[in-house]
Design goal:
By secondary structure, the chain is mainly α. The protein has two domains: 46 residues; 122 residues, Up-down Bundle (AhpD-like). It is built from nine helices and no strands. The longest helix has 23 residues.
């Protein structure tokens, strides 16, 4: 299931590399390919990992909504690696796995609430060029989520865009993390990501 990235993987070495590999294998069962590619520029890798760890500590937005938003971005952009990992993380964190498995086809799936659909619509709207976020959608979300969660949603979607677009441009594809989940990840809707 592993791909051949456009930038070759680097050999992760040294004490920092040992810690990174050990921590990754404990969390994911394998070293994530983005880490192997980004090892060529440790400042970028360290900054990306650091921001990701900080973003995981944000607590104003429901974790399911945050997960659905990230996966919606991944499906739109076509990052099979992000879909694979985020579905695996939803499973490991005890989030709603049945719904998470349906995110790639959220528009057709009957399992989502109107709020969840608005969150995924917002994630997609932010991710398009040019962004197509409307005042009406923002107002609905602000009313339902409140300002702190709305700011967190926006920042989470922005981070998801950085990750998905970087992985896609580097040619990094699904690694098979989501095989641990009970349900297979749904096939994306027409015009979206390549299936995991």
């Amino acid at each position: 299931m592993s791909s051949t990235p456009r930038v070759p993987k680097a050999e992760i070495t040294g004490l920092y590399g040992y810690v990174l590999k050990r921590f990754s294998r404990k969390l994911f069962g394998d070293v994530p390919e983005p880490a192997e590619v980004m090892w060529h520029n440790r400042a970028v890798l360290t900054s990306s990992l650091g921001f990701g760890r900080k973003a995981q500590k944000w607590d104003q937005l429901d974790p399911d909504l945050k997960s659905f938003a990230h996966m919606a971005v991944a499906a739109l952009v076509g990052c099979s690696w992000c879909l694979d990992l985020n579905y695996f993380q939803a499973h490991n964190e005890g989030l709603d796995e049945a719904k998470a498995s349906e995110v790639p086809r959220w528009r057709e799936s009957p399992v989502f609430t109107s709020l969840e659909r608005d969150v995924m619509e917002y994630a997609e709207a932010m991710s398009e060029t040019p962004p197509r976020v409307t005042d009406e959608l923002s107002a609905r979300l602000l009313d339902q989520l409140g300002a702190p969660a709305m700011v967190e949603l926006t920042a989470s979607v922005a981070f998801a865009n950085m990750a998905t677009r970087s992985n896609t441009a580097l040619g990094i594809e699904a690694q098979g993390f989501s095989k641990a989940c009970k349900l297979p990840l749904a096939r994306p809707s027409a015009g979206y990501a390549t299936p995991v």
